[in-house]
Amino acid sequence: MSRADGKNWTAQTYVQSHGPDLYRRTMYTFWKRTSPPPTLTTFDAPDRETCTVRRQRTNTPLQALVLMNDPTYIEASRKLAERLMKEAKSDKDRVTLAYRLAMGRAPKAEEIRVLLKLYEEQLKAYRANDQAASKLLGVGESGRNESLNQAELAAWTVVASTVLNLDETVTKG
Q1: Single pTM value for the model
Q2: pLDDT at position 94, please?
Q3: Which residue from 25, 28, 79, 97 has the fewest beta carbons nearer than 10 Å?
Q4: Residue 22 belongs to what domain range?
Q5: Mean pLDDT over residues 52-78, rounded?
């Protein structure tokens, strides 16, 4: 039998923050001694039982699933896409800016070609399906920039997610 007010003391109930508290750095994540946050476990965070000099580096399908489906990363991709659309004029410049922001380098010609092809395919799909674009852009609590074209923003969100999901971005260093 548990106490009626047990949720106040045992942290068994998770309540998501809202507003500015939602976007705090991960160092403020509540970490139970025996159960670290699942996202940190997925990305090989040490267990904190011993000192770790160098973190293990892996790249697993589960990490890709988190990066492509977790609302945190979808929202981050949308915000990156908004920045790309506001700060760069041409599609090639947007891909270049995404690479510079994520990896600190310019993309190779082949990388630009592949991502521009992805953008065109996604743009065509989102122009044909406004509801899918709206659903993608509605993920997360921060509002989207309404002045940007919905189909274009959705397509750039997919491109940004792809760049953020690249092995070079995830396991940099």
Answers
A1: 0.82
A2: 98
A3: 25
A4: 1-60
A5: 86
